[in-house]
Specification:
This protein is α+β, with helices and mostly antiparallel strands and 185 residues long. Helices cover 39% and strands 19% of the residues. It contains 3 helices and 5 strands; from the N terminus they run αααβββββ. α1 packs across α2 and α2 packs across α3. The longest helix is centred in the middle third of the chain and has 29 residues.
Amino acid sequence: MNFLENYEPLLKAFWYIALPVSLFFSLQTIMTFVGLSDGETDMDSDTGDVEMPFEIFTLRNLINFLLGFSWTGISFYNTIENKTTLIVVALIVGLLFVAIFFLLIKQILKLSENNSFKIESTLNQTAQVYLTIPAEKSGRGKILISIKGAYHELDAMTVASEKILSNTSVKVVAIENNVLIVEKN
């Protein structure tokens, strides 16, 4: 840090912010890519709530702000003569870094998809009978149903007075004890 001795106080301040923040950012990035991070990195996100994916005041956002602020101050120190203008420009760039991070994370969270299967999602859906379904709930058959692009083979019964043969199209009308109740479509 001896190279900072001859610099003006404002430029020294920018450097004193930039060096440790850049080191911390580099380590945090390496840890994230290597897998040593817990993966959350200050973001408590609920993929169902894309409007506000995480808190504004986090360590990650502080680091992003300080990176933009300090490196802008260093980069434009000799270009912008008025130091107040320089600080304002550095503040704006720091805020832009945080805004860009918000936008990137928001777009990434839009890509997340919950593909967990819930039996309730089969209600009022059509399916194909895979194994014959006996009449009047006297036994179970099997149906093949597509939910969110994935096919599921599920137990099914019918209240109809006649059995439903394989390859017949049916509609799920109810669920009883994780068994689908179907009727001919």
